[in-house]
Design goal:
CATH superfamily of the largest domain: Beta-grasp domain
Structural class: alpha+beta
Largest sheet: 5 strands, mixed
Strand content: 25-35%
Number of domains: 3
Number of helices: 8
Number of strands: 11
CATH architecture of the largest domain: Roll
Order of helices and strands: EEHEHHEEHEHHEEEEEHH
CATH topology of the largest domain: Ubiquitin-like (UB roll)
Length: 257
């Protein structure tokens, strides 16, 4: 049987100057996703939203019925195509509009509430252990539990690693320790008094964007903020569109995960 080689062509995306060689027939949208380029689309590439517009320099397949319906004659004359409909048949350059490349700049990270009273489950408690006297039966951990009970903290669970850490700090002569407590569970020990160093992360997982804030749990103020576009955004603007994507595309669920 004669071997038939699949034709391949190079696509160049602007701005960003990313380019790669793809097999003939791939949609511009799928090629962009393969290069990590997000082109705005609400319908997960099924050709109903008309938002994945790009400007193309080069010859592609003729405009589809979907494109003739969703794009104006003037847009088609200017080389505007829907990336979910346009197929690679020759080398080309694709210009992604600013409306797609600036999606990440629209993420809201400031809530206006810079300081909020908090009552976290995880606490830090300073503990002073007494000096060991010669001849006394020395139960290090019992001393700790007694010190915590004096602060109205009843520990019901603790990891073995906490016991090892406690022994290590005491062997080094450290009597001031900080116990990290989650309700009635002892999580760990820290040498010295670190009760004023306690942080948590608040994460907002939205359908369009992801945002995280590093919060000082002792004062309630925000220390740092990070955000990004939800990678699933490329496969639909909402949950329904993404479910449809997993149904229509082999391996779609793996891509979303």
């Amino acid at each position: 049987m004669e071997n038939i080689e699949m034709a391949e062509f190079r696509i160049r995306f602007l701005p960003g100057r990313k380019s790669a060689v793809f097999e003939k027939g791939i949609t511009l949208r799928d090629a962009a996703l393969a290069l990590g380029i997000l082109i705005e689309s609400d319908c997960a590439g099924i050709g109903t939203c008309g938002k994945c517009k790009v400007e193309v320099k080069g010859k592609l397949n003729p405009p589809t019925a979907v494109e003739k319906k969703l794009l104006s004659r003037q847009e088609l004359q200017k080389g505007i195509r829907l990336s979910c409909q346009a197929l690679l048949v020759n080398p080309c350059t694709v210009i992604v509009p600013q409306s797609s490349t600036s999606i990440g700049d629209q993420i809201l990270t400031e809530s206006g509430l810079q300081q909020t009273p908090l009552n976290p489950d995880i606490r830090k408690v300073r503990v002073e252990l007494p000096e060991h006297r010669l001849g006394e039966k020395y139960f290090v951990f019992e001393q700790l539990l007694t010190a915590l009970r004096q602060k109205n903290i009843l520990v019901a669970h603790f990891p073995l690693s906490a016991v090892r850490d406690l022994t290590q700090w005491l062997q080094q002569g450290k009597r001031t320790l900080t116990a990290v407590i989650d309700q009635n569970q002892l999580l760990a020990f820290e040498p010295g008094n670190t009760t004023d160093v306690l942080f948590g992360v608040a994460i907002d997982i939205g359908t369009t964007t992801l945002a995280a804030k590093l919060i000082d749990l002792t004062r309630g103020d925000v220390q740092a903020v990070a955000s990004a576009v939800n990678p699933q955004r490329a496969h639909g603007a909402d949950v329904i569109a993404r479910i449809h994507y997993t149904i229509e595309h082999a391996g779609g669920l793996k891509q979303l995960n």
